[in-house]
Amino acid sequence: MSFEHAPVTKGLMMGSALTSIIGGIFDVKHYLHLQLVPHVSRNHQYWRLLLHHTAFSNSSDLLIAEILLYGVGIHIERQFGSVKFASFTVASVLLATILEFLTLILFHNMGINQIPSGPSALLFSILYQWYRLIPPAYHFRIFGIAGSNKAFVYILASQLALGHLPGSFAPAVVGLLTGFIYRSELVNIKSWRLSPSIIRFSTRFLLPLVGSTRAPRRSTRARPETTHQTPSPDIGNEEIIATARPSAGTEETGGSVMREWVNELTGRNEQGTTGVRVPSDSEITQVTTMFPNMQRAVIVGALQRSPNIESAVELLLAS
């Protein structure tokens, strides 16, 4: 699977990885998480509401998020289209920010005072769309428990939701709720799109930074290309000798076997323009001695249609 028709997903993966690495290098990850008390309520650091979506606090969460984005986000972007998917991303982040802030206000007395950094809410919102839109590819049963290929994605997502309890569970629930609200008619935001000026700016300046998203082109040829080589004067056009020439006693049998083996390797039996081979004089003489009353044209025709002398003899006996 490639990033073809999924530049926004590729940009999200690259952006999350880059910001997480930069945050670790410059040791600023303590500025990225969202905490109600004292950062928001006392210090009024409201910029954390949006900034905490930009980077993950550890490499394990980043790895799980990258795997989920690659396995889930590409399918949803291809279903939506890049413009709608980008609009859905912006709307989900804004709506999830509001819901996370309300969650901290309502449940901070129950122990949910901070939310780990990272776009977990956006990821679970995308996961909800994947759950609703993409059917399972196959089903299986283990110890009587039915499942599908989607179960492996849900297991990865549960690692992200349960990694830093209770704070990590809040963005997971908020993300699923955001995805549900987007698909429902409670708030009509499905028809909202980014402005054309933002789309033109992104296409002109941001898309080149993402790089190419074209899938690698694989050759559909089942055989290698036929190379045309000029034969040397001492080798006949009807035969390619890959080893030393056989002795006189083995020339009649060894030559035909070697020619058949080389033809099978190079595909000359099926790629030839005429579909027949040119028999040697020794083969014609040998078969003529076996069938003295047979016309020469019939013997040559049987040899041309057969890969070796044995097949030609069987063909003549059956005729």
Structural commentary:
The chain is mostly helical. The protein has helices spanning about 5-25, 35-40, 50, 60-80, 80-105, 120-135, 150-160, 170-185, 195-210, 250-265, 270, 280-290, 295-305, 310-319; strands at about 35, 115, 140, 145-150. A two-stranded antiparallel ribbon has the order 1-2. Strands 3-4 form a two-stranded antiparallel sheet. Strand 3 (about 140) and strand 4 (about 145-150) form a beta hairpin. It is elongated and about 110 Å long.
State the shape: elongated
Mean pLDDT: 84
Q: Helix/strand-derived class?
A: mainly alpha
What is the makeup of the main sheet?
A: 2 strands, antiparallel
Based on CA atoms alone, the radius of gyration comes out at 35 Å
Keywords:
two-stranded antiparallel sheet, mainly alpha, 4 strands, 14 helices, 319 residues, elongated
List the helices and strands and how they pair.
Blueprint: H1 7-25, E1 34-35, H2 36-40, H3 48-51, H4 59-80, H5 82-107, E2 114-115, H6 120-133, E3 139-142, E4 145-148, H7 150-161, H8 169-183, H9 196-210, H10 251-266, H11 268-271, H12 281-290, H13 296-305, H14 309-318
Antiparallel strand pairs: 1-2, 3-4
Helix pairs in contact: 1-4, 4-5, 4-6, 4-7, 5-6, 5-8, 6-8, 12-13, 13-14
Summarize it.
By secondary structure, the protein is mostly helical. Helix content is 57%, strand content 4%. The strands form two sheets. Strands 1-2 form a two-stranded antiparallel sheet. A two-stranded antiparallel sheet has the order 3-4.
